[in-house]
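A further point concerns the way the authors explain their paired sequence and structure data. Showing the layout once, in full, would remove most of the difficulty. For illustration, here is how one protein appears when written out as sequence plus structure tokens:
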Amino acid sequence: MRILLVGAGGVGTAIAKIAARRSFAELVVADYDISRAQRAAGQEFTAVQLDARDEEGVASLLAAHSCDVLLNATDPRFVMPLFRASLTAGTHYLDMAMSLSRPHPDDPYQQTGVKLGDGQFALAGEWAERGRLALVGMGVEPGLSDVFARHAADTLFSQITEIGVRDGANLVVRGYDFAPTFSIWTTIEECLNPPVVWEKGGWHTTAPFSEPEVFTFPAGIGPVECVNVEHEEVLLMPRWVDAGRVTFKYGLGAEFISVLETLHKLGLDRTDPVRVGGAQVCPRDVVAACLPDPGTLGDKMTGVTCAGTWVTGTGAGGGPREVYLYHVVDNAWSMAEYGSQAVVWQTAVNPVVALELIESGAWSGAGVLGPEAFPAGPFLDLLTDYGSPWAMEERAPASR
């Protein structure tokens, strides 16, 4: 399979390292900064310079390198131009974050406006007509979390009351007072937008950081306060999995929330340019430039990160059931094995697994589809084969 990988940051670099160990993948690594593309490509793959905003240029590059699929490892600003370029070029497409949302103009904390992924699902018919697959939201969250939901619905439950994606970690970064372990641009976007909840057959929004709860994570992480955050799973899961309620909650911590709230108060979360002297600059880009690149923090990090899906309802045997399906990555392991820090590696492994399943024919389809649209078993088996097994914890129903 010939893959155009767009984006050679932390996640893109980890994707290249993982793909280099799998015989099915031949990568062309593209980035606006050619030196980053060259570092990520190494000796195994081809590196090219590319502006992800240039739809015509992306489509031409896909054709010039006879690519089968575009794998988008950029931030969500570039989803739609890359998505449309793939459709134009007639290739498949895969991303780890979906097209951006816009809050409801009058009632942002109760009603949805433009939802995550709406721009992509609007073109679903064209993708289906052309017989091409756009697999959206195929990182770890969204991505593996959605595969867990499909597995629970197919094998563990006869009826699902609630699906709650819960993310927590005990990672520590030495030498920094504040150092996010993932893209701050994306983190600001998802944390300060109104979170979406699926309930009673429809979507509604709530205030950022609402409904705090203490969730106990495995692998020595323990209890962490989690809050509502805007995330793609809540928009994807109800399309293919029948559940009474779907939420996403993130274990951010009080200090992290305080920093995000301060950035918002100061207007530093804005994405529209402001004039500084004779230059136009985007405040959020300035914040990102002032913070360390998450992909470079691995040798300063200790601890583990946990991504998982908590499910309650009626078990396949007829009684009440509550489970937490999860995936843990220890930073010491990911650094020793791949030279990538835990959070970016955990994100990167899942699209590579998905592409291998598509290449083998174990996963197939056409249109704009989420991970829930495919059988979970082959994915979970292959993830384990990559040396990174998942796990499941039975919990006492109605207790967390």
